[in-house]
Amino acid sequence: MEKIPALGLGTWKAAPGEVTEAVKVAIDAGFRHFDCAYLYHNESEVGAGIQRKIREGVVTRQDLFVVSKLWCTRHEKSLVKAACTKSLKALKLDYLDLYLMHWPMGFKPGEEDLPLDRNGMVLPSDTDFLDTWEAMEDLVVTGLVRAIGVSNFNHQQLERLLNKPNLRFKPVTNQVECHPYLTQKNLINFCQSRDVTVTAYRPLGGSSEGVALLDDPVIQRIAQKYNRSPAQIVIRFQIQRNVIVIPKSVTPTRIRENIQERVLFFFYSEGLGSHGSQLGVGPPHKQALCGFDAAEGPGGAVATARGTPECDRHGPSPGAGEQQVPNSRGAGQRLAGLCPRAGCLLPKSQDRCLWLPGPGFVGPFQNRRPPSSQSLC
Ligand SMILES: NC(=O)c1ccc[n+]([C@@H]2O[C@H](COP(=O)([O-])OP(=O)(O)OC[C@H]3O[C@@H](n4cnc5c(N)ncnc54)[C@H](OP(=O)(O)O)[C@@H]3O)[C@@H](O)[C@H]2O)c1
């Protein structure tokens, strides 16, 4: 797989008893990207949902993009392969599309996810993430994973990794917390300038210990104005800035709401920068809502989105192309058409592709990058 679907289903805090059904609903709704991790202790149930939909013939394995993460207690080089194999077994897959280093620091190996000392401080291991990365690179070589990436890396850590001598595989993404209260503008600029995509976690404010983002009066007002839900607004916010986004939900109506065409093919067609200064009542780690600035938004995206009747993956589709769909203000909005293949939500637009390029897909995949893979739009 040479691209990362820009919208995925998060699975943290998705209870084992609920997540199998959530994954099935998500696949039916069009989700193809699933963000998993050993730490979430639900990979087996996620895998059950995936297998069920493959058996039903709704999707094939190749249609899906499954991500897992190496937990911090497995940073020793000798432990990396077994950790990956454990996730694969739980997910009932023979390869992962992407394996991320969950955090840049290692913890003392063992069965406890958070090994603590007497004072409640996490016990670190003396591993270096550059060594851990080498073991992750081996997973690509042996075919257990198609690509590797990182999570929770700041720009210095990422730079150190990118400058590693004899780097065999670049990280394809850096998954970080990101939403309108924590826009990560500088980190995103840095990552994108180095051909590393960014994946936004906690895009709706978080599953636990999060922020009440969706209740923010400014987001509510914008949602009302565009006739979208607050969740759709903050999901679209990321897609518009070429950031992959992985909202979590186990609620069928919300899962569908989060991937509706209303999210995928909707553009903020005017600057929202003026709202930025009003946003952010209260949350302690609130930062400026600079991402809602017109400069970062699509600008002329509506005007320039020229749909071509061709899906990146499924080829030309007769009769399909751009549609004029009324937006909330009644004006026609130019949207890319959808691929008619069952379950495929890819736009038939080479200049507005929802599948982000995976610039780090090197080695065996480097010749499979489509010509349009250099940019999202
Ligand atoms: N790499 C990392 O360190 C890291 C850290 C945190 C998260 N993540 C990943 O990122 C994913 C997303 O982050 P997150 O789960 O923390 O938080 P999130 O996606 O920002 O928020 C999830 C919460 O929003 C609710 N929700 C979902 N859709 C909604 C909608 N349309 N309207 C209203 N509420 C809605 C969910 O409720 P219901 O489920 O009850 O519907 C859940 O309580 C995680 O699941 C995980 O895969 C990665």
Automatic annotation (TrEMBL):
Disordered: where is this region? 306-332
| Molecular function, one GO term | 1,5-anhydro-D-fructose reductase activity
Keywords assigned by UniProt, alphabetized = NADP, Oxidoreductase
Q: Which reaction does it catalyse?
A: 1,5-anhydro-D-glucitol + NADP(+) = 1,5-anhydro-D-fructose + NADPH + H(+)
Q: Which domain of life is it from?
A: Eukaryota
Q: Coiled-coil intervals in this record?
A: none
Name the family the entry cites.
Answer: Belongs to the aldo/keto reductase family.
Subunit architecture: Monomer.
Q: What is this protein called?
A: 1,5-anhydro-D-fructose reductase
